[in-house]
Amino acid sequence: MYEILEKKVLGPQVTWLVVRAPEIARKRKAGQFIILRVWEEGERIPLTIADADVERGTITLVSQSVGKTTSQLATLEVGDHLADLVGPLGTPTHVEQVGTVVCVGGGIGIAPIYPITQAMKGAGNHVISILGARNKDLLIMEEMMRAVSDETVVVTDDGSYGKKGFVTNALQEIIDSGRRPDLVIAIGPPIMMKMVVKVTRPFDIPTLVSLNSIMIDGTGMCGGCRVSVGGKARFVCVDGPEFDGFSVDFDELMQRLSAYREHECMALARWKEQQAEPK
Q1: What is the reported pTM?
Q2: What domains sit in the chain, N to C, each tagged with a CATH number?
């Protein structure tokens, strides 16, 4: 059922897939995600629903190949099918007209910030998007983000495109100009979100972050996605994925994300060896 209808390569190790999933397309809201398996005996991985087309009955997934399963996913072609797909999962983004909203997307985080930006713009907010990447080649979905934003600022670490610097530099410039945002939403690597919060906290600007913790079942039963928010345990899959950035323990999150790094590297290495073997 979950047939791949379109496939594009957005950048190094970044794959865009349009998948047939009519029920999910009809029910999904900004901020929600799915969990998929590439094959029946494979692991379950979460991916944000980057876009959806109700008429076509499709959802769009953007994946970065960093481990075995995401690398396997990138090998699928148009006409192939996913083993299974569950969703929409997670608590949708709370969307309302608040004034000026700054949406910050770093790297692959631009994909999940896109539907939120679209929804915030649709609610009547003035939306400023800040898009960041290490270099020009790693910047994704720029034109799509510009289409749903009132203003767009692009920054790259090496200065190869847009302004040289980090997303936090661009955000600080907006605040220093006297244009205090009414809300900041940041999605990207944990360290990036932590630094965004460091910028907004002194000004008490409400800041939402979307967490990408280790996840297995997506229903709150396994506890694998547990994070500390405001000193209390929360499950990203059912309580999130979005949380008040001021309350998130980012150091604990980053520590938990690295817990299985050795095993993940071993699994990826074995899979690559298998792929290289003569058929």
Answers
A1: 0.92
A2: 4-89 (2.40.30.10), 100-257 (3.40.50.80)
